[in-house]
Write a structure and sequence with these properties.
With 229 residues, the protein is of the alpha/beta class. The protein has a single domain, classed as TIM Barrel, CATH 3.20.20. It is built from nine helices and twelve strands. The chain has an eight-stranded parallel barrel, surrounded by eight helices. α1 packs parallel to α3 and α3 packs parallel to α4. The two termini are 30 Å apart.
Length: 229
């Protein structure tokens, strides 16, 4: 079971938000300083989210390049505002190993297939679940299709990996939504879980329902001994 620490970017800082709310900043530290702390734990992968990119629809490649340099060779999984194949390729060129894309995949009936064909296993399809619906545009809106419909599309198009976030649990340390992950893991596509993961017991519980990896944000801060605001 892979544990992936999260680095969320707002401006030039690493931050943690509660439930994706820009007005509820739980933690803030300069990017390079925080990345250095993550590198010191020797993770296999670091999950980088450009929160401004997610909000504004345009990931900042220069910031990803800074993350790549600071990561000292540790692979990056990057997301936030990747709304086109060009943007995804720019993120990969800037140093991402794989890209997490949500909003653009669910705009129409053809985008998902186009992204899978172009990016292969470098694409991770994001399913951000909020109040039982599929959230898009930085969790500020909802897609027109259901979670089940999105899962069926991923299966039929040959998506290599899913990144599933329980939005209501994000930044709360309330524990993961095991019912949600048990549901999505039945489709046979590898699942990275995010949202509310607190400790090793939560990691083990997610492994039991079939997840291949977990992203830890606030939970990882506690491992590092860092205080929240």
């Amino acid at each position: 079971m892979q544990i992936i620490p999260a680095l969320d970017l707002l401006g030039d800082d690493a931050v943690r938000l509660q439930q994706g709310d820009f007005n509820r900043v739980l933690f803030r530290q300069p990017l390079e300083e925080f990345m250095g702390r993550l590198v010191g734990t020797h993770p296999d992968l670091i999950h980088v989210v450009d929160l401004e990119g997610a909000r504004d629809g345009a990931l900042r490649p220069a910031v990803i390049e800074r993350c790549r340099r600071a990561a000292q060779g540790i692979p990056l999984q990057v997301s936030g505002g990747l709304r086109s194949l060009e943007a995804a390729r720019n993120a990969l060129n800037a140093g991402a190993t794989r890209v997490v894309i949500g909003t653009q995949l669910w705009q129409d009936d053809v985008s998902l297939g186009s992204f899978v064909e172009a990016l292969g296993d470098q694409l991770v399809a994001a399913l951000d679940v909020k109040e039982g619906q599929l959230a898009i545009r930085g969790w500020a809106a909802y897609a027109s299709l259901t979670l089940n419909e999105a899962l069926e599309r991923c299966l039929s198009e040959g998506v290599a990996r899913l990144h599933v976030t329980a939005v209501a649990r994000d930044g709360t340390l309330r524990g993961p939504d095991l019912d949600l992950y048990e549901e999505v893991c039945t489709r046979g596509i590898p699942v990275v879980a995010a949202g509310g993961v607190r400790n090793d017991d939560d990691v083990k519980a997610l492994a039991r329902v079939g997840c291949e990896a977990v992203v830890m944000g606030v939970g990882y801060l506690t491992r590092l001994g860092l205080a929240l605001d």
